[in-house]
Specification:
Blueprint lengths: L16 H6 L10 E3 L4 E4 L4 E6 L2 E2 L7 E2 L5
Length: about 70
C-alpha cells in the first residue's frame, strides 16, 4: 500500500502589475521589488519585506519582516 500524497502547494498570489508600478515603500517612499516565491514586496532602502496576503499587499511597517544579511 502506498502512502497518501499531499496536494501541491497553491501558487503564490498574483499582484496586478499596474499596482506594483504605483506602490512605494511607506517608510522610505522608495521603489519595491516583487518577490513572487515568498509573496512579498521588498524595500531594499528600508530593508523590509512587506507580505502579500490573498493578493493584497500589506503595506504596514509593523507587518513587514526585516531582511536578513544577504537578502
Amino acid at each position: 500500500m502506498t502512502a497518501p500524497t499531499t496536494p501541491p502547494d497553491p501558487p503564490p498570489p498574483q499582484v496586478d502589475p499596474r499596482l506594483l508600478e504605483i506602490l512605494v515603500c511607506p517608510v522610505t517612499r522608495g521603489p519595491l521589488e516583487y518577490d513572487r516565491e515568498h509573496a512579498e514586496l521588498i524595500s531594499r532602502g528600508a530593508r523590509l519585506a512587506y507580505p502579500i496576503r490573498d493578493g493584497v499587499p500589506i503595506m504596514l511597517a509593523e507587518e513587514a519582516r526585516e531582511l536578513g544579511e544577504g537578502e
